[in-house]
Amino acid sequence: xxxxxxxxxxxxxxxxxxxxxxxxxxxxxxxxxxxxxxxxxxxxxxxxxxxxxxxxxxxxxxxxxxxxxxxxxxxxxxxxxxxxxxxxxxxxxxxxxxxxxxxxxxxxxxxxxxxxxxxxxxxxxxxxxxxxxxxxxxxxxxxxxxxxxxxxxxxxxxxxxxxxxxxxxxxxxxxxxxxxxxxxxxxxxxxxxxxxxxxxxxxxxxxxxxxxxxxxxxxxxxxxxxxxxxxxxxxxxxxxxxxxxxxxxxxxxxxxxxxxxxxxxxxxxxxxxxxxxxxxxxxxxxxxxxxxxxxxxxxxxxxxxxxxxxxxxxxxx
Amino acid sequence: xxxxxxxxxxxxxxxxxxxxxxxxxxxxxxxxxxxxxxxxxxxxxxxxxxxxxxxxxxxxxxxxxxxxxxxxxxxxxxxxxxxxxxxxxxxxxxxxxxxxxxxxxxxxxxxxxxxxxxxxxxxxxxxxxxxxxxxxxxxxxxxxxxxxxxxxxxxxxxxxxxxxxxxxxxxxxxxxxxxxxxxxxxxxxxxxxxxxxxxxxxxxxxxxxxxxxxxxxxxxxxxxxxxxxxxxxxxxxxxxxxxxxxxxxxxxxxxxxxxxxxxxxxxxxxxxxxxxxxxxxxxxxxxxxxxxxxxxxxxxxxxxxxxxxxxxxxxxxxxxxxxxxxxxxxxxx
Lengths: 317, 333
Known about the structure:
Chain A is α/β, with parallel strands linked by helices. Chain A has six helices and 17 strands.
């Protein structure tokens, strides 16, 4: 097994420095090539720890059982390096959302050049996993998100990812410029993983996803079929546009949940309240519209009218 | 001046401060649908349009009140000077609380996120108007010549765009990055839709504002919405550029960009537009020259230049291949 580090893009910055996009590749045999991308949004850190844990596992494999890597694994931990360095979700300085810029353009703005470089590097892989960590407002249970258009090809891969939810979205035009859509359109399978919350790392979620990635890679032939892996610990629920309920704030204030994330709820059950810092009364009670499982919960307490507080997957579907 | 034209589009609560309104002006005769709807300030730092629409509303209220002898407002006009109210008051382009771009939330959804609700209300107010105008001012880094932008227009829109008498009418394709803009949502409605770009965000440019104000008045007059106003005969100042008549200049060197170029000027091929210096040692890295002859319709005003940045746009008299323009056009609207 070889471990290679290289730079897939280097751009001049106004004052002395350069922006570089770094890749680490673990190269074994001639089997399939897979990749993990994270840090497309500069405020999402969960994926950075995942790539660290994968590196540790692969380095250990290289010491003990290098021949078990039949293919190759590429890690792109920091797709938006300037954003990560400056705690910006989008790509500084233009403020462009990198994940609305794909497939990019090699002669365009920074974000478009980064997108184009990633597309060049990733197209043709047997599987790309793009790890997101929600945003600073919402906490997500580890889940795979799939566009309906690519359901048939991606669902078998998603099933072994050891995550709690597979959410199949309808075709929404606004998401056409994402890395996942662009890669899937180019016949390179890409799964989007959402887990945790922005600006934080959740180690338990990391370990859960790492196990899933290893099982999925073994299934693809990247890892030897006889390699021993920790057993899968989670089986996914299926969510879609028909069974997911959104709870948006009726009024503005501080949202105080009275329920834990990822728990079963009953119809009309109290989930939390919106209160005012100016007086002692409650402004709004937040109740579940259905029996089900609460899989998204607001982490950032302030809400405006309309802010999303929770998502519930109805049971019995 | 009377405040009776002011109406509340949306009343919203806020977590800590007082409730707030997004307000609009409704002037002219009562009609089921407005003849014209004018919108600005979807981005809270684009101030030229906000100021001009506020001034235009004052002028039209004066017309209705009989202040301007012989002038008459014959049709209903709604004017929304600023959609992103909190953005104006915090000098922020996007919705300041969750940083979402309201112009990526259309047509909106009344039961959705805050900005979807705002977008939904704006769309509902404006979508039934026959003439719809959305005014923008680029971004903090770039200055645009006051111009009408047309996105895959009808022949009627091409013809009507002349009525603004702005120096340029520039056609664009409706790229996928635009699918959630107000302009894109309007495209599904009967009637005609226009985007106007004027100047640069984060500042107020009196010259551009004057041109924009006169352009909007001229449009209302030529659409028979406003009568009794004598217009200057400046039709010949408008130039119409098709989708293949825009040449973008992209930086391939980074550094400090220095320019004295003015939008609206006609350039010869090879004219120096600006210079790029090394920010550390002060050496000249590159002279930026116009690759083609044409009208300078936009110029970078932010001196910190990154590799890949848009330096300028030149509108050409003849059609050309401009492969990068498509990919760059979504960033300022």
